[in-house]
Amino acid sequence: MPWELTVGIAALVVGVVALVVALVAVRRNRRRTAATPAAGRRAATSPTGPRIAVVVNPSKENTDRIVDVARRVCTEAALPEPRFYETTVDDPGTGQARAAVSEGADIVVAAGGDGTVRAVAEALAGTDTPMGIIPAGTGNLLARNLDIPLADVGEAMAVVIGGRDRRIDVGRARITPVPGDGTPDDAAADPALPRGASRDDDAPGPAHLFLVIAGLGFDAAMVADTDDQLKARMGWVAYFLAGARHLHGRRMKAQIALDDETPVTARLRTFLVGNCGRLPGGITLLPDAVMDDGILDVAAIDTRGGLAGWAQLFGEVVAQGMGVQNEAKIKIGRIDHVRAVRVRIDVDGGEQAQVDGDVLGKASSLESWVEPGALVVRAPA
């Protein structure tokens, strides 16, 4: 037999043997894999970590993007896929947030505007479950004060996943509606509490939660008159355009009581009770407000002299945000700051009231108090 043929046969035999060995190895590997318990395989590959629920307002234009980005960020972080709960007209987020917690969520994210944030906070206040925020509104008040990114959903989700837990105060406000004003019943205006329920036993009626500012007077009238379509096109600037219609409105006659002090009478344009003070447009209305000090910061604002008074007032607001105080003895526009745990203001004839940009209606009185450290929020690390 020629040596070439001998070499060829030998090579063929070696190849067949190698193929047989490979097939045997594959079959053994398959048997080994089949013998591994299914639960064990899932444990090795399933994402682990905090379970995130996102309460999303479907009326916002970027709802689909929020859902897509939240899923992507959780996948990239090897976290379980988030669960999504949509708000409704009848329930702006409180019921959804409670459902998320009952279904095992470790973090509940409010994805929407200030109303959605308020509603989710109502469900989580008094618990240890942290609230995250994906800003998707016009004011985004709490997000601004927590330095949460406003324009990038991915960056906001990064805070949700990698941020720190911070316990902050919660404000409560109860109003006395003006009879016959046509204002919806208070309990209906705040679905977070049942009709007639209250978190404070001193008086009946629901206590509306706020995280940034509650107000009575000019600020609330401005919010009430802001056109929703204009707000959607122009953002927070729409509030200022609405406010221009009230620059020449009447000054309200008010009686103000702080804690246990003797009530005082004053003429005002607006009365604000705040947990923190940063507003859109770089405005800091309450420069000394701290959201975890257990105290409310109060601003009584007045102006006379028409547009000149408002111009001076605006200048004073801008200056105080930069740490500069107007020491002039005579002012036609002024802001008086005080601090208290409990506040009450009564006004003749009634004025519009608001909490964090949500209008409560025309009220003859507003009573407010603080719940120290009631809410855990996820803040930038």
C-alpha end-to-end distance: 81 Å
Helix content estimate: 25-40%
| Assembly category | single chain
SS element count, helices: 12
Overall shape: globular
In the CATH hierarchy, the architecture of the largest domain is Sandwich
Integer average pLDDT: 81
| Proportion in β-strands | 25-35%
Could you describe the largest sheet, including whether it forms a barrel?
Answer: 10 strands, antiparallel
Secondary structural class = alpha+beta
Radius of gyration: 30 Å
The CATH topology label of the largest domain is: Tumour Suppressor Smad4
Low-confidence stretches: 1-26, 29-45, 185-199
Give the total of domains. Answer: 2
H/E element sequence: HHEHEHEHEHHEHEEHHHEEEEEEHEEE
Domain DAGKc: 47-177
GO molecular function: kinase activity
Protein name: Diacylglycerol kinase family enzyme
Keywords: ATP-binding, Kinase, Lipid biosynthesis, Lipid metabolism, Membrane, Nucleotide-binding, Phospholipid biosynthesis, Phospholipid metabolism, Transferase, Transmembrane, Transmembrane helix
